Amino acid sequence: MSPRRERAATPLISPSLAHQVNRSRVLQSLYDIGPLSRSDLARLTSTTRAAIGTIVQPMIDSGILVEGDPRSSGATGGKPARPLWFSPSGPPIAAVHLMPGQVDAALVSTAGDVLSTSTGTFLPDTRDADTVIDCVVDCLNRVLPAEGAPPLGVGVAVGGMVNTDTGTIIKANLAPVLSGLPLGPLVSERVGLPVYLDHHPRAQALGDRWFGQARGVHSFASLYLADVLGVGLVIDDTVQRGQAGAGGEIGHTVVQLDGRNCPCGQRGCWETIATDEWLRDEAATLGLPAAQTMTTGSLARLAARQHPGADELLDRFAHNISLGIVNLQQILAPGLFILHGHAIAGGDTFRRKIEDHVQSRVLQHAAGPPRIVLAEANDHATVLGAAGLVISHNLKLIA
Ligand SMILES: [Zn+2]
Q: Which SUPFAM superfamilies match (predicted)?
């Protein structure tokens, strides 16, 4: 017998399911492009304006969408178009980023506006799982609205290995109390809302896809580079999770035989040469100032002032980061790589160095060279990604 889990049968398309899929495609167009009129939507989805009307009117009536002010229909005359967009008074989404010792929660609108935030802390070495659940629930209760439309659900991004099928955290090295904790079902029971849980970089990728620089992009990679390294991959509009969320450990693919020891037990993992720890060790060896608190941002500033050795170290770090990106590009060709975390402060100089190393190593293809971009400096991508988990579940297009 194969050890593979059986998949649920795929249902045939009933009229109600067809309506649900069509509704999702309309919403997807709005997320991908922005506010659109009924005529725009009809053109984009190859249907009639009347057919679009039957899809969007129930969403306007139930307060999910709202029609904006009329805009000119141009020289052709005719009825002025009214763009449709997500209603600010529509049902919001609760989002949680769970880190070792800290919880960030937010209430997010369906349009991706962060409406309110709260933060809580717990002792990372606590052995009492209830204190963690209490902390998450307290943070959520501070952002959940007392009145108005009930939230669509809660998305939780976790810095650790997760089982996305059961909502359980499998392993979190920096906070052992989280290991084995069925956080999703426990929080769901306390707040009375559906809870969707995923690994932090995969949620971050959804933040990029729904609300960030990957809007309308079907394949890309979202990297988190700081004290740890994580990558969320979206290929053909599907977040790559592997079985029950076991995938996504690219930081522990070996890029250096007999390299540095990694906390995972192997040697020479990509993570051992592409995080802050490597940078600080090398900065200390070179005698650079403030080596023990060095980040990409402070190193880039030293390099800009032409401090001896700084630009060379920045380039070596960019080279180290490029190795894993090249491997991803050669295997799956996401084409676009979005950098989050401390990499953002490295600025365009650092971005360009990584891009140059990547482009010089990948094989040329008609699809064009892979691009590296920086996430916005005001980076809400993780809580937005946690909110994106709820949107994905509701739309079931980008899952
Ligand atoms: Zn490792």
A: Actin-like ATPase domain, Winged helix' DNA-binding domain
pLDDT at 5 over 70: no
Mean pLDDT of 183-190: 97
Calculate mean pLDDT across residues 24-31.
Answer: 90
CA of 256 to the centre of ligand 1 (A): 11
Decide if pLDDT at 367 tops 90.
no
229 C-alpha to ligand 1 centroid (Å): 10
Q: Which residues pair with 103 in a beta bridge?
A: 98, 120
For residue 337, the SS3 value is: strand
Residue 249 confidence class, pLDDT cut points 50, 70, 90: confident
Ligand 1: centre distance to CA 251 (Å): 7
Q: Domains, the chain, ranges and CATH?
A: 15-86 (1.10.10.10), 93-206+383-389 (3.30.420.40), 215-375 (3.30.420.40)
pLDDT at 171: 83
Instruction: Indicate whether 399 pLDDT > 50.
Output: no
The burial of 270, by beta-carbon neighbours within 10 Å (0-12 exposed, 13-18 middle, 19 or more buried), is given as: buried
* Ligand 1 centroid to residue 263 C-alpha, Å: 6
- DSSP-derived pairing of the beta strands 336-341 and 371-374: parallel
C-alpha–C-alpha distance, residues 327 and 380, integer Å? 27
- Determine the Cα–Cα distance for residues 62 and 313; give it in Å rounded to an integer: 56
Residue type, 46: S
Query: For the chain, what is the mean pLDDT?
Result: 90
Calculate how far, in angstroms, residue 249's C-alpha sits from the geometric centre of ligand 1: 9
Return d(Cα 93, Cα 107) in angstroms, integer: 6
Number of neighbours of residue 362 by Cβ within 10 angstroms: 18
- H-helix or E-strand spanning residue 209: helix 200-211
Give, as one character, the DSSP assignment of residue 241.
-
Q: How far is the CA of 277 from the centre of ligand 1 (A)?
A: 14
- In the block, tokens 């094989």 appear at 363
pLDDT at 3 over 60: no
Distance from the alpha carbon of residue 257 to the mean position of ligand 1, in angstroms: 12
